[in-house]
Design a protein that fits this description.
By secondary structure, this protein is of the alpha+beta class. The protein is 30% helix and 38% strand. A hairpin with an 8-residue loop joins strand 1 (23-27) and strand 2.
Amino acid sequence: MSASAFLDRVFANLPSARGSDLQFNAWRHAGRPTSEGVGTLGMPGIDVDALAATIMNVGEYRGNIDYVEESRVIADPQYAGSKSVRFYQRVKVPMLAQIQMELVITDFGERDGWRVVAWHMLESETERLNPRQGARSDYNVGAWLLKPDAVAYALSSAPKKKDVGRLKFAALTRGADASAAQVVKANIKGMVAWSRR
């Protein structure tokens, strides 16, 4: 799944920031078991460059971002340089599962007045991961959109059903859709707080 195609859908559904309340939109895409969603939060005083650098610092997510159990950079000449990073990530969904994937995160620069940092999952690399170390993602794509007075976060993800079983899969898909707005708000606040430490 391409981050560029996902970004087109995000910008088509991006809510404007209004005050300090999260504005959230979700939509279905391609018959997937979870909705795609984006939330925008008005936040004055954002240092866009510092926040973008924090988001790109994927090797330090563990201990700084909630529920990240492991996050490490994978050396790959295809993604060398400061614009893209390949990495492995394993996250814990409390009381349900650990989910793992390989991803590439890219600083896309400016688009429509926003600084855009987005990621997409590497499908074949994720498929080769050992499911005994955590359920593998079936798809995972997302984006951060940054302005001096607002931050938006977008995500589309689900685990492989065969790795978690029917009941957990339902909790991790329907449950994720039900709690998406709260998760988006918490992720924005957590990343901004880390960037200011």
